[in-house]
Amino acid sequence: YDDKLKGKQYIVHYGSLKYLKGTHIVAELAKTLLKKYQDLYIVLAGRSESLYDEAGNEIEAYELVKKNAGEYADRVIYVGRLVREQLYPIVQNAELCLLPSRIENLSNACIEAMAMGKIVVATNGASYEQLIENRVSGFLCERDNKASFLQGINEAMALSLEERQRICANAASVTRRLGPDKIYEQYMSFYRKVIREW
Length: 198
Fold this sequence. Notes:
By secondary structure, the chain is an alpha/beta fold. The protein is built from eight helices and eight strands.
């Protein structure tokens, strides 16, 4: 995808493309974002599932995003399902990672993006708040709220270089505390405490 994406400024939404992952929010935002940021693209990566358009017709998730983008549909790029070696460079070169999931466990997509020092715009109350401190290591937005996500994206896009570097560094530092050496020691400490006290 070097030819398709090289030199382009884009927001990436990746993982499974479906309601649970908030792809409908990406579709609702598409036209507004692409109209406001004339050089911006939206890149979609992952397995596309069926969503429904405003008329109730079943449509592939990536097609719904393109359809809703209207005259800017040519700036929505669907790259399909990729192996990690193909996906990571796309994430690495994105302006932002947009993860508007309705609910998550501990999101691998979020951890991966933050480990690369990327700014993530994600849903508050869907588990991302375990990783992201709002406006410190990323941006948290209200679930299923197009206006809230638009505000988060606009804030992220308006960051000065210094502010962007600070948030990116904070994001990367959050994931370092999740390293196996640290997590294993926390588990072992907990198990020792339980054995000792019970």
